[in-house]
Amino acid sequence: MKQTTPKPDRREYTLMIVPHHGKSVFSIRIPMKYVKYTAVTLGICLTILSGTMLNYRYQANLAAQEKYELNQLRVVNDKQHVELQELSKATADLQQDMNRLNQLDSDLRRIVSSEEIVDTSRSASPRLTNYNGQGGPDIQPNVADLKNLVKELKAAANERENSLLNLKSSLTEKKERLAATPSIWPTNGEVTSRFGWRSSPWGSGRGDWHPGIDIANDMGTPITAAADGTVVNSSWVGGYGNMVEIDHGNGIVTIYGHNSQNLVTPGQQVKKGQLIARMGSTGYSTGPHLHYEIRVNGTAVNPSSFL
């Protein structure tokens, strides 16, 4: 079978330009193949342009997505920054709490004036030794871990503070009770009469009941309060002569008699060891001495049991 060769397309388009005013008509012949080539070229250009536009839209969407993610990361970063600032403030507040606890611990030490309270007030801390072994994985805490840690430390600090406050209150009460308990000698000298029955110093040949102790020394020897309290009497009282009476609370009263001079006034608050009078021989007395007496709920008791 004989193959036929396709004939070339000889068609063409004629573009005619007709001017005004009777000028010559101008025509242009455009072969069909040029029209086809132009159409193909335009198609290719349109295809390339479409691809470019699609790629541009894809890149624009991708950039918008990345911008959105970046903004989200900035929001998260700002939030974490705020949280870290809050944690920093919480840590600073916690440090102030710990400083307050340390001050409270120091106050307790001053109250007891010893190291007996070390194990109580620092029970949460291990004792130091010469060993320094350490270890464990190196893990960086996140914000949640730090927040939990601060929360736990705050709870521990509050619990410790309440415990120390209760202990301080108990120790303060105990100290005040001890300070208000006659427990020191009110003056220096020789004990010439003790509590109880004794031979009469007046030479009557019979014994008498002595409700305190007599301490003899030179005229004017200082006399001090045996405990904290309130002066309820500072005057001349019969056989006691110049007498000072101090109420220490809890039904305890001390009496200091035969003074040459009273140095306090009723209503005055005095501290243990404070100068209140000077030794004398006023009232029923055979010489300079202090008559020291302790009464509990109105009954005289042996002062030696308090010394």
TrEMBL record:
Cite the SUPFAM superfamilies for this sequence: Duplicated hybrid motif (SSF51261)
Q: Which Pfam families match?
A: Peptidase_M23
Q: Which domain of life is it from?
A: Bacteria
From the record, give the transmembrane residue ranges: 34-56
InterPro entries documented for this protein: Cell_wall_metabolism_enzyme, Dup_hybrid_motif, M23ase_b-sheet_dom
Q: Domain M23ase beta-sheet core spans what residues?
A: 210-303
Keywords, in A-Z order: Membrane, Transmembrane, Transmembrane helix
What is the protein name stated in its UniProt record? M23ase beta-sheet core domain-containing protein
Q: Which organism is it from?
A: Sporomusa silvacetica DSM 10669
List the taxonomic lineage: Bacteria, Bacillati, Bacillota, Negativicutes, Selenomonadales
